[in-house]
Amino acid sequence: MPSKNREFTVILVLCFAYLTKTEKPCASFNNIKVSVVQLKGEPFEATIYGCVQRPNFRDEVIVSEILVSEQNVPRLGRDAIRHMPRLTSLVFENCGINNIMPGSMRNLPKLRYFEVNKSGLARILYGTFQELFTLETIKIHNTDLNEIDTDAFGFLPNLKETDLSNNQLNYFDRTWFTNSTNLEILNLQHNKIRTIERKSFKPYHRLREIQLDHNDITLLETNSFKGLRHLEHLSLTYNKLKSIDSDIFPNSIKITRLNIAANHLTYLPTQLMDKLIVRKVMLDGNPWECQCLHKVTNWLYSSGANLEKPSNCGDIPVCYSSTVNEKSCMEVDDDEVRVKYFEALRRLGDKVHKHCARLN
């Protein structure tokens, strides 16, 4: 009889040890208020201690969306959000998140949308989104993000949109998205990117929209956008491009909207125009050499494209000619034209050139 009691005690100890090992307690949340949308019924607020998981809610509540706003959540530790079988959306807004640990989101089989907005997050670690195969949209913006690990957004077969705008990134690396080949929309606006390297986006042949506005881009390497047969919208406004290589696109690509306004361009290569078909183009705020701009507008007219103009920049100069009798576009980078054009812009006042052109 005593031996049976000892066996029973051993079994209990082993079971407890197993449960303790497999389900470690989490402490990411301390008296945190969250807004909850349920599959059926009205939205409500809940207070969370420890981690977000199914036992936090009544049995009849089926949680589909969670918003955490204006709360103090400096760190998402391991298992911070777990075992939520119907959760589709998870948003952290202005919560001061500085660190998201790999494995912080686990057993979320229907999660499609994840967002972090306004935080001190500086790095995305490999494994942060591990096994979240249903994710379609990731938005991490208005943060201190300056480093992303290789494969951090990789192996997500349903990922279609990624917003990394208003961060501190100074480069783009295609290995961030290894095997996430269904990506369609990529927003990298308002960062500090300087160069787009050759074949940066080639693995993501489904990309149809790339937003690179308000960076520090001075160079688009040859074949930068190679392989993007479905690209519809490319926006490069407010960068520092002085020239565009004639081979940045695949041959005969058709783009619905191309925005290259507010750069430092004085001309477009004839070879680029010959292989590019566009429907809408924005060119304003560049120091075009007048004959070169005339050549560009003729190309647009002959191809049936629409020239779009910003609503508040109608009074800025459209081009500058260094030689009165010049009758053809030389297709050379002309610093004299650039300097004279920007001098004319400055005379119009800060309000005009800050909104309509990139001078520095």
Protein architecture, described:
The protein is an alpha/beta fold and 360 residues long. The protein has helices spanning 2-22, 270-275, 290-303, 335-346, 350-356; strands at residues 29-38, 44-50, 52-53, 63-69, 75-76, 81-82, 89-93, 99-100, 105-106, 113-117, 123-124, 137-141, 147-148, 161-163, 185-187, 195-196, 209-211, 219-220, 233-235, 253-259, 276-282, 306-308. The protein has a 13-stranded mixed beta sheet. It has a 3-stranded parallel beta sheet with strand order 3-6-9, with no helix packed on it. A hairpin with a 5-residue loop joins strand 1 and strand 2.
Describe the SSE topology.
Blueprint: H1 2-22, E1 29-38, E2 44-50, E3 52-53, E4 63-69, E5 75-76, E6 81-82, E7 89-93, E8 99-100, E9 105-106, E10 113-117, E11 123-124, E12 137-141, E13 147-148, E14 161-163, E15 185-187, E16 195-196, E17 209-211, E18 219-220, E19 233-235, E20 253-259, H2 270-275, E21 276-282, H3 290-303, E22 306-308, H4 335-346, H5 350-356
Parallel strand pairs: 3-6, 4-7, 5-8, 6-9, 7-10, 10-12, 11-13, 12-14, 14-15, 15-17, 16-18, 17-19, 19-20, 20-21, 21-22
Antiparallel strand pairs: 1-2, 1-4
Signal peptide: 1-22
Keywords: Leucine-rich repeat, Repeat, Signal
Pfam families: LRR_1, LRR_8
